[in-house]
Sequence to fold (159 residues):
Amino acid sequence: VQYPITLYRNPQFWIGLVIIPMFLLGFLIFIGLFFSGLDNLVNNAIGFGLTTMMSMMVVVGILNDSLSKIDTIPCMGLFVLIQIAITSSAVISVLLTEKLLKSIGKIARSKSHDRSLRWRIVRDLTKDGKMFRNILFAVFTILHVANFIWFLSNNEVGY
Fold:
């Protein structure tokens, strides 16, 4: 007695349910973190971070239920894990950068540094922090896209 069995995978399920939502969610968090107003920046960063982490944990739950249990982490699991690490790093960097800019700005505005050209440049750079936030946005967006490209170019795409 023979029974023919055909197994196949449906990549559209993974693309539509995990890959594209994680990629778009990453961009949304970066835009929200780095281009929100300066009012309550810390509260915004914490709120964005917690909301995004909860959304990403839903995806991790889907992966946990759907992926086969093997000895190594599948490529998609690594993609999601790296995405969570990048997003967490972005939230932490926004929080730390804001504190650092305030401290450096306070030092630069002290009377002993009034006439120094170097401290004048530091004062201008730390005035509103937009330049640092734009640089951080570029860095984390590059990391985000690099993770996505790594996932797509991996020859052993383990769903």
In short: Residues 79 and 151 are 6 Å apart (CA to CA). The chain has one domain: 11-149. Residues 11-149 form one domain.
